[in-house]
Amino acid sequence: MTLIVKKFGGSSVATPEKIVNVARRILQEKKDGERIVVVVSAMGDTTDELIDLMKSVNDRPNGREIDMLLSTGEQVSIALLAMAFARLGHPAISLTGAQAGIATTVQHNKAKIQRVEPGRILAELAKGQIVVVAGFQGVNAAGDITTLGRGGSDTTAVALAGALKADACEIFTDVKGVYSADPRLVPRARKMQEITYNEMLEMARLGAVVMQPRSVEMGKSYGVPIHVRSTFTSEPGTYIREEYTMEEREFVVRGVAHDLNVAKLAVLGVPDRPGIAYKLFSALANANIDVDMIVQSIRNADKNINDILFTVSQQDLPRAREIVEHTAKELGALGVVADENVAKVSVVGAGMLGSPGIAAQMFGALADAGVNIEVISTSEISISCLIRADQVKEAVNSIHSRFFPDK
Amino acid sequence: MTLIVKKFGGSSVATPEKIVNVARRILQEKKDGERIVVVVSAMGDTTDELIDLMKSVNDRPNGREIDMLLSTGEQVSIALLAMAFARLGHPAISLTGAQAGIATTVQHNKAKIQRVEPGRILAELAKGQIVVVAGFQGVNAAGDITTLGRGGSDTTAVALAGALKADACEIFTDVKGVYSADPRLVPRARKMQEITYNEMLEMARLGAVVMQPRSVEMGKSYGVPIHVRSTFTSEPGTYIREEYTMEEREFVVRGVAHDLNVAKLAVLGVPDRPGIAYKLFSALANANIDVDMIVQSIRNADKNINDILFTVSQQDLPRAREIVEHTAKELGALGVVADENVAKVSVVGAGMLGSPGIAAQMFGALADAGVNIEVISTSEISISCLIRADQVKEAVNSIHSRFFPDK
User: Fold this and answer.
1) In the A/B pair of chains, how many CB contacts fall below 8 A?
2) Which residue among A21, A282, B92, B381 is buried most deeply as judged by most CB within 10 Å?
3) DSSP code per residue over A276-320
4) The whole model's pTM is what?
């Protein structure tokens, strides 16, 4: 008997009317005998309102108490959604994360799902109920409520789908699926029918915001096909799977991603000695700062001095700069330059390794658009270029036109 | 080591500032080594807001889902209060009803506490934490969240005090204690130092709203002394106990209660046959309607017909009237008269049985105030009179002056 897990985010359940609409929509699509588990987030801005309330009591509260507070947001949504199903004539029951058997690690605010004990869910499904589960939350071994951190409701849905051996996990969003580029920047961006877990993870890492990487990773490890689709239409969205189901794929490059949350740091005139890079990057790693796109170039071969350049996220820039300036002084470097006015554009595609010339085409597209490339980095399934932030739109459109020509 | 349970209602924790004030107040009064459990209700109007939200989704929701929804109100309060203690430098931990071991009967919205498993509370107290427990809620054998119905937070506090063998259970309110009459009506009403469980129960039954009867009953059965005191001052309030601790009590009558939530129903010209009253009142009992102050009087002794008169609460009047009119027709009665413009005034005192003349003094006080008595009823520890609703203030003041003369 088919079992489908469906996840609706906070904006889909922001008002009582929207909650009733979600219930109506699910019932309209439901086939006879189909078993349905719905995962929901907190209504609209509820979580932000709770955080405001919290900050006016204590600006550095304990993690356990934050979770006690924030988990009420989803608890309100699940009760209301279960009531909405009942109003529309279908039996439904709401379950908190704990009641749904979502066992997590002990740490609060960013707990990880350790296992799902789906006994109660299966029992309620067997009674013919639609089961409505609170996203974003679980219970740890101490019996305390935990939350999963950002994108946690997606993770809940995928984990439940895995544990319940669901036929599908549908993630409803305000976009129609995964696009070949951000449609707000690239009007001709195409909705993809399917994409692999690895491509989706790479797209997310490189700036695409449709799905949180953690839930995609979980889908990959449980082998759960994820269907990203629109809250507003019933047409199919994009399937995220291990492999393509179609024999041929039209395009080698599957998507163009961009990321404006990038800052560049350059350490100039570093002596060319072994262990220099280690010293610099271990200091950053100790401060828990993620570093990307590292390039070392020769400044002056005669004097044996180099420039080292890399990128960090904009929120990490102040701390990274401080650490790097301190280390640069120790190393006897000439100086440190920071630049926030940069962006990263990338192409992603699992078949790129077997298709030479992708990089050349990307550079050509950037040249056509008059965009200068500052740094290049590559992975097995992507190529990224650092450019000026104010040229992102031209850059992404030019690359997209090159790889996705109009028919 | 002393252990005190303190309960604060919704108005005491209506805003973040008030929550911090409650925490500060508790810490100021706390003695070294004293163990403290705090029970709180939902913030201010939260419960009403959740009910509004609910009604816009489903106007007749399932009881289980109502409890799932409403229990979030207290969960928000406990998290914030624990955060407030932390901000003021004292470790604290919040526990939901389920985490606090409050096991209830299965029925939702009006579950009864069956037992308290205080293991977790005791463990947290042993770590030096102030334990903040969500009032009004528990968990049933199915693992579902239940709520205790009206006045439930008082019941939670008293039940915890009983299970923890607490030295005291303090109920903080916006009044200074239990008064000899409602101070809003009787400016000279006196705060009582102590009152017995039975007197308090009778006062509550007859309209006094300081404590819900269920929590007083629970205090009586566990032998927990309840201290009703003010949120705003640190002076002692009123102790509710099994027996008076002082040798002599100044007054036989301990309080004057009044109740405006009363309606009168009269069935006129009922044939005087056995089984008539049974027929009438069993029909009302089957509809779960509480009946009070029943009086049967002879209308016409020659024709063997009587009038039967009784009171119900105003919200029960429409249904009660319908049932009574139906039954009256069956019985061949002359007619039914309903009157909402009535009120009940009562005097309460455990020693009344041994003090003759209390009734006469009460009737005299009402006569002095020009108040006509429509119905009289008595219990072991109270005398009640039904009067016109618009004469309540004069009636209560006149009775109060008679039994509590100014010194």
Assistant:
1) 106
2) B92
3) HHHHHHHHHHHTT---EEEEEEEEETTTTEEEEEEEE-GGGHHHH
4) 0.83
Task: Please tell me which residue, A153 or B295, carries the higher pLDDT value.
Answer: A153
The model's pLDDT over B131-154, given as tens digits with 9 standing for 90+, comes to 999 999 999 999 999 999 777 899
Which residues in chain B have Cβ-Cβ distances shorter than 8 Å to A87? Answer: 57-58, 61
Residue of chain A nearest B17, judged by CA positions: A57
CB within 8 Å: B75 and A69: yes
Residues 94-133 in B contacting A (C-alpha not used; CB under 8 Å): 94, 96, 99, 120
How far apart, in whole angstroms, are the C-alpha atoms of residue B76 and residue B82? 10
ipTM of the predicted structure? Answer: 0.82
B257 forms beta bridges with: B346
Tell me which residue of A116, A152, A199 sits closest to A380, measured CA to CA.
A199
The structural domains of chain A, with segments of one domain joined by +, span: 3-173
Superfamily of domain A3-173: Acetylglutamate kinase-like (3.40.1160.10)
Amino acid at B146: T
In this predicted model, what pLDDT tens digit does every residue of B92-143 receive, in sequence order? 999 999 999 999 999 899 899 999 999 999 999 999 999 999 999 999 999 9
Nearest one of B138, B147, B148, B118 to B5, comparing CA atoms: B118
Q: Which of A16, A71, A120 is the closest to B57 by Cβ?
A: A16
Q: B83 vs A75: CB contact, 8 Å cut-off?
A: no
With a pLDDT cut of 70, the percent of chain A lying above it is 99
Tens of pLDDT, residue by residue over A280-305, are: 899 999 888 989 888 888 777 777 88
Chain A residues lying within 8 Å of B22, measured CB to CB: none
Q: Hey, how many other C-beta atoms are within 10 angstroms of the C-beta on A379?
A: 13
